[in-house]
From TrEMBL:
Keywords: Aminoacyl-tRNA synthetase, ATP-binding, Ligase, Nucleotide-binding, Protein biosynthesis. Belongs to the class-I aminoacyl-tRNA synthetase family. This is leucine--tRNA ligase. One of its GO terms (biological process) is leucyl-tRNA aminoacylation.
Length: 1083
């Protein structure tokens, strides 16, 4: 076996006791070596240039920079492979930008703001009280706990989650202190990211909240300036509320329902037009209802679908109440639970007051005729029975849109089929057919009926199937639907949702309503409601601010149309956002210290903090001072105003010089060049990120780019801890090594669709990287031999070289051109952040080209100059994705003194219009086609290769017509002129003409006018003649004849038939048993 630079201890172990993991372990030893080297050298610590002679605005031109960021992870657990996938986009980009000669900065921080850490710490504290320091669940509870955990799909208690991470009970007990979380998980994350080989400048790392007083001053300054700019306002907002306690019920106040928030609905008032007989009797018996306007009130999450209402549903076994509304003459028919929530939302006569005027059974309401606002059935619709209406969700009244809701469609279909069975009169359902509301690509205008048919749902009793259909229908119609009815016809359903809601409310036909997402019980045993309370909010969506942010988005590179589309939608619907809370970890609101800045709201412009963090402090919590000797108190609002906004410092400021350094650093690194994130953050964090930048910074400091990716699956399944299909980052790097993990992460989808990490790909990557390392080592040894004796051939194991002075053959030149072409393709992919394509060109196809070259030169040997170029090129191509492997080849194998991290992308690549280069690449494809076309197992037979030099005259006529009638400015053909010109030329190619015309048009649309030029670019006969030894060795024929059809060869009948369809660049073949030389004239 060739030497590979594998550590002797590993090699010895492999020799004494072979292990299946030897190759992986060898690669991991190499990774550990270079990680130590990079850390010792500070390889990823990037600073602004120390050149005071250059004005800040000119620094970027003289010293190009790049700054990429990733949303800092929340530190309530270790990082997993999903984190690694999203951050890998910035990691690979940082490697690419370094190869471009830029100062590439990849900073990283840790988010600890918000409720989850504090809530989890409080859970541990409660569980210590319940179960003691050993967390012993009493025997009489253990069975119920196990059953509940199984039903929940994971651990029921917080201590069980920690136990699953391998922690001892003594260690778990320490997590009852929220601060311990901040000390425990960030160092683990740093260690894991270093083990992955990430190019992160760790000097700039920090924790959020007041645990880092520097960041705390930054977050508080940000909020002060947003309020000064009128972006933060005070208004009533929804919050979880305990009526018994008379205050908001935050997570730490809850007996159950931690993490549950308000769910907002649009309530639709369905005014009673005509009571059913039973209901009329009940109403007449309640004097307080006399003269009142009574409405059944339905709560919906889909107001945009109201145009398709055909009826409404009630639960026949539920009890409803007549509740006094805020307006004296108005009464709502809803459940008691809904009325209790409404009482705290200004929807009852007085705050917290529930006024019940009477009760009525759901069954009695059936048959009542009501007005359905916006419905195409404007004369009214009927109240019908439904089996699965819940009293614990919404108002107990369900408006029915059977074209969009599978549940509604199944129920209405049952009632139509068996009206007697359900106590329904035919007149209540006849003529009420599903009405088109939303058109989708997948299911047309009748999403629910189509899904019910597709999934074979036969009844409203098929609840499991209906739940699946509902999820599909909602996703398809909301994200991909277009309104096909109503005032907003033609608009995306996402955009129409808010507009229809506002229309219903402004017309008086609806109102806003909220209730807890799921039951919440306070510690005082009170079932909580949602109340409207005074809250500070960010005024996202305000017209002028929105317009400015849309301007920012329009100028940005979103690295994909779908990301731009989703951001445009997010900016369009985003409205007021509650930005403070009273529980958890965070920074105090400057003007209201009893409140904390909300977790998404302190995380919008922290990328600017990265530009100065390393100068302020050198520890996560800010306790270790930075090189400027600044204290947290030095960073007051005036200091941040100067550093980030360029406002003048107060005269005689004691820290003016240090602040000047901070200002220069900010100006050099800003703006952010790219921010990469999972697509789930588009509708909140990324939208906030854009909004806040436009509110505070100048246009030249707005973000330049945003990139999003889908979620990561594992082996084709959604990652889930409960199902065991979750891999932590540490586990992945331990199982496969860093480079194999990175390569497998690169080898997945780069778009917004969900990606799939295949463990088999990671395992294969280990084998490929190890084999290539061995081959490269042998190749370099052969080069060393050649350098020592350039006039002689060289050979090491399977590596054979010609003398260094040997001339370049056509095969050499083809391979050289292919290396350049694949390098160009990989560079284009890296630039577009399409890493799967970069890996395809720079590794997989590059490896195939190498294997072909080795095989094609097996007789004479490879050219030393090309082999050296191959090794260097492969190392550079893989450097962004597998930096450890590339560094090993660069410094250990090639013996380069400097790191490959400081190398440059090849600058001697041919231009895209280089005809010679293009011809050589075409020649390479041609050779492979020739080799792959004839059938195998042909020993002793003869192969005739027929080469044509000219295209049929009729094809040239067609191309001339198409070229003459193509407008290069509009990239369109004048179809009338094309048809007329072709008709005037007679039959041309007969039936072949139309397909040929369409093919040429398709090619022109793909590559432009270059498609009109079909010249091959090389001499086919000469090429085949030069590679004849290779062809004979690979194909194994007894003889090979190259027949130049332009040379007037006399052909036998079989040869003539075979040669008839030959075209330039597309030879034809004939295998026969005829003796060699049977062709009268051959090339």
């Amino acid at each position: 076996m060739a030497e590979t630079g594998v550590p002797p201890a590993v090699a010895a172990t492999a020799a004494d006791e072979p292990r299946k993991t030897f190759k992986r372990d060898a690669l991991m030893e190499i990774e550990a070596r270079w990680q130590r080297d990079w850390e010792e050298r500070g390889a990823f610590e990037v600073d602004m240039p120390e050149d005071d002679s250059v004005a800040p605005e000119e620094l970027h031109n003289k010293y190009p920079k790049w700054m990429g960021t990733f949303p800092f992870p929340y530190m309530n657990g270790p990082l997993h492979l999903g984190h690694a996938f999203s951050l890998s986009k910035i990691e690979f980009a940082a490697g690419w930008e370094r190869l471009q000669g830029k100062r590439a900065l990849f900073p990283f921080g840790f988010h600890v703001t918000g409720m989850p850490i504090k809530a989890a710490a409080d859970k541990i504290a409660r569980e210590l009280e319940m179960f003691g320091p050993e967390f012993v669940v009493p025997d009489d509870e253990a069975g119920a706990v196990a059953a509940a955990a199984a039903a929940a799909g994971g651990a029921l208690y917080q201590f069980q989650i920690m136990q699953d991470q391998g922690m001892s009970n003594a260690e778990i007990a320490r997590f009852a202190d929220a601060e311990h979380w901040l000390k425990h998980y960030p160092p683990i994350a740093i260690s894991d990211l270093k083990a992955m080989g990430c190019k992160i400048d760790w000097r700039r790392a920090f924790l959020t909240t007041d645990h880092n007083p520097f960041y705390d001053s930054f977050a508080r300054w940000q909020f002060t300036r947003l309020r000064d700019a009128g972006k933060i306002r005070l208004d009533k907002r929804y919050t979880i509320w305990s009526a018994k306690d008379g205050q908001p019920c935050m997570d730490h106040d809850r007996q159950s329902g931690e993490g549950v928030g308000p769910q907002e609905y649009t309530c639709v008032k369905m005014r009673v037009l005509e009571w059913s007989d039973a209901a009329a009797q009940a109403v007449a018996a309640i004097p307080a209802l006399a003269g009142k306007r009574i409405s059944l009130v339905a709560a919906t999450l889909r107001p945009e679908t109201m145009y398709g209402q055909t009826n409404c549903f009630v639960g026949t076994k539920l009890e409803y109440g007549f509740f006094q509304a805020a307006a004296a003459d108005e009464v709502y028919v809803v459940t008691e639970r809904a009325a209790r929530n409404m009482a705290f939302q200004d929807l009852s006569p007085a705050n917290g007051q529930v006024v019940r005027l009477g009760a009525i059974a759901g069954q009695a309401i059936v048959g009542t005729k009501v007005h359905a606002p916006l419905s195409c059935y404007s004369a009214g619709v009927y109240v019908l029975p439904m089996e699965n209406v819940l009293a614990t969700k919404g108002t107990g009244v369900v408006t029915s849109v059977p074209s969009d809701s599978p549940d509604d469609y199944a129920a209405l279909r049952d009632l139509k089929k068996k009206p007697d069975c359900y106590g329904v009169q035919p007149a209540w359902v006849d003529g009420y057919e599903p009405a088109p509301v939303i058109s989708t690509t997948a299911y047309g205008e009748m999403t629910a009926p189509a899904l019910c048919d597709e999934m074979k749902i036969n009844s409203q009793k098929d609840r499991d199937q209906l739940a699946k259909a509902k999820a599909i229908a909602y996703k398809e119609s909301f994200y991909n639907g277009t309104m096909s009815a109503g005032a907003f016809k033609g608009q995306p359903a996402q955009e129409a949702k808010q507009k229809v809601r506002e229309l219903l409310i402004s017309s008086g036909d609806g109102f806003a309503y909220a209730e807890p997402e799921s039951p919440v019980m306070s510690r005082s045993a009170d079932e909580c409601v949602v109340a409207l309370c005074d809250q500070w909010y960010l005024d996202y969506g305000e017209d002028a601010w929105k317009a400015l942010t849309e301007e920012c988005l329009a100028a940005m590179d979103t690295h994909g149309d779908e990301t731009r589309r989703q951001l445009e939608i997010a900016l369009g619907w985003l409205r007021q956002w509650a930005c403070v809370r009273s529980y958890g970890l965070g920074s105090r609101v400057p003007w209201d210290p009893a409140c904390l800045i909300e977790s998404l709201s302190d995380s919008t412009i922290y990328m600017s903090y990265y530009t100065v963090a390393h100068l302020l402090h050198r520890s996560l919590d800010g306790s270790t001072p930075g090189p400027l000797g600044m204290a947290p108190a030095d960073m007051d609002d005036a200091a941040w105003d100067y550093v980030l906004l360029g406002k003048a410092l107060p005269a005689g400021h004691s820290k003016a010089e240090a602040l000047h350094e901070l200002r220069r650093s900010f100006l050099y690194w800003y703006p952010v060049d790219i921010r990469s994130s999972g697509k789930d953050l588009i509708r909140n964090h990324l939208a906030f990120f854009l909004y806040t930048h436009t509110a505070l910074f100048a246009r030249n400091e707005w973000p330049r780019g945003v990139r999003t990716n889908g979620h990561l699956m594992l082996n084709g399944e959604k990652m889930s801890k409960s199902k065991g299909s979750m891999i932590g980052l540490r586990e992945a790097c331990s199982r496969y090594g860093a480079d194999a993990t990175r390569l497998a992460l690169a080898d997945v989808s780069d778009g917004v669709e969900d990606a799939n990490f295949e463990e088999s790909t990671a395992n294969t990557a280990i084998l490929r990287l190890y084999a290539l390392m061995e081959w490269t080592t042998d190749a370099h040894k052969a080069l060393a031999q050649s350098d020592a004796a350039p006039e002689a051939p060289a050979k090491v194991n399977d590596i054979s070289l010609r003398p260094a002075a040997a001339p370049m053959t056509i095969i050499d030149r083809v391979f050289d051109a292919e290396m350049d072409a694949l390098t160009i393709a990989a560079g284009d992919a890296y630039e577009k952040t399409m890493y799967r394509d970069a890996l395809k060109s720079g590794f997989y196809e590059f490896s195939k080209a190498r294997e072909w070259y080795v095989n094609a030169t097996a007789d004479a040997g490879m050219h030393p100059a090309l082999l050296r170029k191959l090794i260097v090129r492969q190392a550079i191509l893989l450097c962004p994705i597998t930096p450890h492997w590339a560094e090993h080849v660069w410094r250990t194998v090639l013996g380069e003194p400097a790191s490959i991290l400081d190398a440059r992308w090849p600058a001697d690549l041919p231009a895209s219009a280089d005809r010679e280069h293009s011809a050589l690449v075409s020649a390479g494809r041609y050779v492979r086609k020739v080799v792959s076309s004839p059938a195998p197992d042909v020993s002793g037979k003869v192969l005739d290769i027929f080469v044509a030099r000219d295209f049929p005259a009729w094809q040239e006529d067609v191309i001339a017509v198409l070229r003459a009638n193509f407008d290069t400015t509009t990239a369109r053909f004048d179809e009338r002129q094309v048809a007329a010109a072709l008709a005037s030329r007679g039959p041309l190619g007969g039936k072949k003409t139309t397909p040929f015309v369409q093919e040429i048009k398709r090619c022109v649309r793909c590559v432009g006018p270059l498609a009109f030029d079909r010249s091959v670019g090389f001499d086919e006969v000469a090429l085949l003649g030069e590679i004849m030894p290779y062809l004979q060795r690979i194909l194994g024929f007894g003889a090979i004849n190259v027949v130049d059809l332009a040379g007037g060869a006399v052909l036998r009948e079989a040869q003539a038939r075979a040669a008839e369809s030959a075209l330039p660049g597309e030879p034809r073949f004939l295998i026969s048993s005829a003796p060699a030389g049977a062709v009268a004239s051959s090339g």
